[in-house]
Design goal:
The complex is a heterodimer of chains A (about 150) and B (about 120). With about 150 residues, chain A is an alpha+beta fold. Chain A has a single domain, classed as 3-Layer(aba) Sandwich (Chemotaxis protein chec). Helices cover about 30% and strands about 30% of the residues of chain A. Chain A has helices spanning about 10-25, 65-75, 80-100; strands at about 30, 40-50, 55-60, 110, 115, 125-135, 140-145. In chain A, strand 6 (about 125-135) and strand 7 form a beta hairpin. Chain B has about 120 residues and is an alpha/beta fold. Chain B has a single domain, classed as Rossmann fold (3-Layer(aba) Sandwich), CATH 3.40.50. Helices cover about 45% and strands about 20% of the residues of chain B. Chain B has 5 helices and 5 strands; from the N terminus they run E-H-E-H-E-H-E-H-E-H. Chain B has helices at about 10-20, 35-45, 60-70, 85-95, 110-120; strands spanning about 1-5, 30-35, 50-55, 80, 100-105. Chain B has a 5-stranded parallel beta sheet, with helices on both faces. In chain B, helix 2 runs parallel beside helix 3 (about 60-70). Chain B is globular. The termini of chain B are close together. The chains are: A alpha+beta (about 150), B alpha/beta (about 120). The interface of A and B includes residues 22, 106 and 110 of A.
């Protein structure tokens, strides 16, 4: 069975639409800022799509960008840690919902999960796509992993 | 009028309430529910004139809330505000008796066109 998956330009279009609407800022794709990826704390939010295509969708960013996202969503200067976790969860939920609509159905979307640190996908998962956009000089990644690569090969 | 906003994300409830104001629907009372079960309880205790509900929530999802309401005889106007706007879900929402499904990310204009028939 051949299933057409998410094209990079479609993913970028969704990121652009979601950022513009929720964060009121246009994402900048392309050259990444010169940041030390090993420095500071990373926040990651994930959702999972279950259906003909099983997919893990993860957005990851430095803590400063996560706080910025929450500030923009809530329109407050000093969001709490709970606010930041909630905001990132909602960001990946909206991204995931829009990406899910481009995948074969019927499928379901999990509730979002936000953690501090990187998320290691299951060993059998396969990275399907990745885009990085820049918010105020900080990278925010969106990575999709196929959880059952054999089903779509 | 009283509007019940049901979403497990406090951030999204705030965004929905802000968008209601931006769409010109200020001046209404807003009640919040943090999951589907809470929404079902508050429809009975608060008697809202409109329910705006997320689909994917813990405890009880939005479509189960709608089914439970209709099964109990409630005819409260009900619309979804959800991150998923597939045809499959729109059809399911319509079959369940929802008036509309607004997909996230949304705009004040999409709120205006969907909610005006109920609130104006």
């Amino acid at each position: 069975m051949t299933i057409s998956l998410l094209a990079p330009e479609d993913v970028e279009a969704i990121v652009e639409q979601v950022w513009s609407s929720l964060l009121e800022v246009e994402p900048a794709f392309g050259p990444l800022p010169d940041v030390d990826a090993s420095a500071g704390e990373t926040w990651t939010a994930t959702v999972t799509v279950s259906g003909p295509v099983a997919m893990l969708i993860a957005t990851a960013m430095p803590r400063e960008a996560a706080v910025d996202v929450a500030s923009r969503l809530l329109m407050v200067d000093d969001p709490t840690t709970e606010d930041v976790a909630d905001a990132l969860g909602e960001l990946v939920n909206v991204l995931g919902g829009n990406l899910k609509s481009m995948l074969p159905g019927p499928s379901t979307l999990s509730l979002p999960v936000t953690v501090t640190g990187e998320v290691a996908p299951p060993s059998h998962a396969e990275e399907q796509g990745r885009c990085v956009a820049v918010l105020d000089g900080r990278p925010i990644s969106l990575t999709t992993y196929l959880l059952d690569p054999g089903a779509v090969s | 009028m009283k509007i019940l906003v049901a979403d497990d994300s406090r951030v999204m409830r705030q965004i929905v309430i802000r968008t209601l104001r931006q769409a010109g629907f200020d001046g209404h009372d807003v009640v919040e529910a943090e999951n589907g079960r809470d929404a079902l309880d508050k429809v009975h205790s608060e008697a809202p004139d409109l329910v705006l509900s997320d689909w994917n929530m813990p405890e009880m999802n939005g479509i189960d809330v709608l089914d439970a309401l209709r099964s109990s005889g409630s005819t409260v106007p009900f619309g979804f505000v959800t991150s998923e706007g597939s045809e499959e879900m729109r059809t399911r929402a319509e079959q369940g008796g929802a008036l509309f499904l607004i997909a996230k990310p949304f705009t004040p204009e999409s709120f205006e066109s969907a909610l005006a028939p109920v609130l104006r």
